[in-house]
């Protein structure tokens, strides 16, 4: 389990409102500095494009799960940065491509039902909308590719779109090549995904004058499917930006905690868990995370870089990162509740004053157990794993090293009632070893 890190009272009081860094002449220069461009079409043309009159750009999100995750957050924040620079975003949720799913490198996806995909389309649309502004001259617009795909017959699809694709070129795409070389192979369904995504770009170019698509670099074959199609059909050049796939400095996969994805939906990943995920960022990774996932300026990030080098024990950069991203995803009130819970758990606040839902989610991240009301502190120490035996638990209590809900325990037979909000209790052994107790009523 990841370490639950305490937060000092000196943590920043509020997150910054999203704004681009005025020290950069062009938003292109800023996103390059932040490490958001791994691969792209012509960089000189892109810099001119993003530094000129407002353009329309898009990013697509397929409903292959009920929520977006941290990998998608990279795209959402890039979309927001471009909108803050004056450009017009199109947020596409793939009601048709989500029925297929882009090819994974190893195996065929399980096809979800149409009802499930439709429900997830609604979930993802609401999430995407949180990161964009729908007001002003460059107001965002949401689109669903099912709107132009569903009315098209298979014959029309093959005649109007399929004729522009060459199978030899399609076979060279990384995702397709990987699957062809695997035991699973690839179905025609998933093989056709790149055509559908290319058609999306063509449709958005025709309807809205869209000239830029962003996505992860692992989607580069699908991104260029659209740029190539538009070039053949419309005889114009459009652009694509592929962001890097983010990994940790030790080579492990980013965006997972204890093997579970960090989802943007609070029901699938609590704000407390999200906050702790960022708080546990390694010193070697934290500056790059600040660049990509926050709107801190270059000057502010360089200051944190100096602090990490000179005083890593302060973990100031991690605290700011956790504050900024959790606020971006879950809002300031939820983030404030999370920080209050973190401080109270480590003795710097009142456990009894915490929000019940936040406290329960915090305790789920600790070693925890469900007990019956009336269980003794000594028994609870064993059930949570804080002590290996009752005799060890009794010794710890006798030595004054155990507290319950922030109050020192001197009686091994003291009963736990779950007096904290939400019917829970907090056990501590020593200064930093905590466990949560979910107290069920006695029979």
UniProtKB/TrEMBL annotation:
Recorded catalytic activity of this chain's protein: tRNA(Tyr) + L-tyrosine + ATP = L-tyrosyl-tRNA(Tyr) + AMP + diphosphate + H(+)
Q: What are the BP-aspect GO terms?
A: tyrosyl-tRNA aminoacylation
User: What keywords are assigned to this protein?
Assistant: Aminoacyl-tRNA synthetase, ATP-binding, Cytoplasm, Ligase, Nucleotide-binding, Protein biosynthesis, RNA-binding
The domain of life is Bacteria
Tell me the Pfam families matching this sequence: SYY_C-terminal, tRNA-synt_1b
Record function comment: Catalyzes the attachment of tyrosine to tRNA(Tyr) in a two-step reaction: tyrosine is first activated by ATP to form Tyr-AMP and then transferred to the acceptor end of tRNA(Tyr).
State the similarity comment.
Belongs to the class-I aminoacyl-tRNA synthetase family. TyrS type 1 subfamily.
Can you say what this protein is called? Tyrosine--tRNA ligase
Q: Which organism is it from?
A: Microbacterium laevaniformans
Q: Which gene encodes it?
A: tyrS
């Amino acid at each position: 389990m990841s370490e639950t890190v305490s937060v000092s009272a000196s943590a920043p009081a509020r997150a910054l409102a999203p704004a681009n860094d005025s020290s950069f002449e062009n938003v292109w220069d800023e996103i390059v500095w932040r490490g958001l461009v791994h691969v792209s079409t012509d960089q000189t043309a892109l810099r001119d494009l993003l530094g000129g009159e407002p353009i329309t750009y898009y990013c697509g999100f397929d409903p292959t799960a009920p929520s977006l995750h941290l990998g998608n957050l990279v795209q959402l924040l890039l979309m927001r940065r471009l909108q803050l620079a004056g450009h017009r975003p199109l947020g596409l949720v793939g009601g048709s491509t989500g029925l297929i799913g882009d090819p994974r490198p190893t195996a065929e996806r399980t096809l979800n039902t149409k009802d499930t995909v439709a429900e997830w389309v609604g979930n993802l649309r609401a999430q995407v909308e949180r990161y964009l502004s729908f007001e002003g001259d460059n107001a965002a617009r949401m689109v669903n590719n099912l709107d132009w795909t569903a009315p098209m017959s298979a014959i029309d699809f093959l005649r109007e779109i399929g004729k522009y694709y060459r199978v030899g070129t399609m076979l060279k795409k990384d995702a397709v090549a990987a699957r062809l070389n695997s035991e699973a192979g690839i179905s025609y369904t998933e093989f056709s995904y790149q055509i559908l995504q290319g058609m999306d770009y063509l449709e958005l170019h025709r309807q809205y004058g869209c000239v830029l698509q962003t996505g992860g670099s692992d989607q580069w074959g699908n991104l260029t499917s659209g740029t190539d199609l538009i070039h053949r059909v419309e005889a114009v050049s459009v652009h694509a930006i592929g962001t890097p796939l983010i990994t940790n400095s030790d080579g492990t996969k980013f965006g997972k905690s204890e093997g579970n994805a960090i989802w943007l939906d609070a029901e699938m990943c609590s704000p407390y868990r999200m906050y702790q995920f960022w708080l546990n960022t390694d010193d070697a990774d934290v500056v790059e995370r600040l660049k990509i996932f926050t709107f801190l300026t270059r000057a502010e990030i360089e200051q944190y870089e100096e602090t990490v080098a000179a005083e890593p024990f302060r973990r100031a950069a991690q605290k700011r990162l956790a504050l900024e991203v959790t606020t971006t995803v879950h809002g300031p009130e939820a983030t404030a509740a999370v920080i209050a819970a973190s401080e109270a758990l480590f003795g710097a606040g009142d456990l009894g004053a915490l929000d019940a839902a936040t406290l329960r989610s915090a305790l789920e991240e600790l070693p925890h157990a469900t007990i019956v009301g009336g269980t003794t502190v000594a028994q609870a120490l064993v059930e949570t794993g804080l002590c290996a035996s009752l005799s060890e638990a009794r010794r710890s209590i006798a030595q004054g090293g155990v507290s319950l809900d922030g109050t020192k325990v001197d009686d091994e037979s003291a009963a736990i009632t779950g007096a904290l909000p939400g019917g829970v209790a907090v056990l501590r052994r020593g200064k930093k070893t905590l466990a949560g107790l979910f107290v069920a009523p006695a029979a």
